[in-house]
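Quarterly update, task 2.4: zinc ion-bound model.
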Amino acid sequence: MEQACTLSALTSLDQTDPDAVQALLQTCIESLFDPMLWEWALAITVACAVIGALIGKAKGRWLAGLLWGAALGPIGWLIVALSKSGFVECPDCGQPNAPSAKVCRHCGVDVRRASQRSERSRLKRDDWASRKRD
Ligand SMILES: [Zn+2]
């Protein structure tokens, strides 16, 4: 008798009958090696990775989104959605830029040099303020 590999078939299985156990085991192994199952698993993984990449793209971290989505599916999407943005804020105009950006795409300022400069000017301002207090 051919039985489908289901949970109800497993729970109702007569374990004293070795032929029935063997037959169900065979059916379950066959369904595990069914290429249709693996095609579905692959399709779902790719879909989860693409959705994760799209969520990550909005945060400037598409690769992290792709990997989290492929590995954990909807949980990975949540991790990426709640993670810190990968965008670099322009120290001059405050607009977000891609993590790899050298120049602000909004105002054209050199983002790296501008961040150093603003750090220097902040230190200078703090130093000046503390001297004024003394
Ligand atoms: Zn800018």
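Highlight for this quarter: The mean pLDDT is 87.
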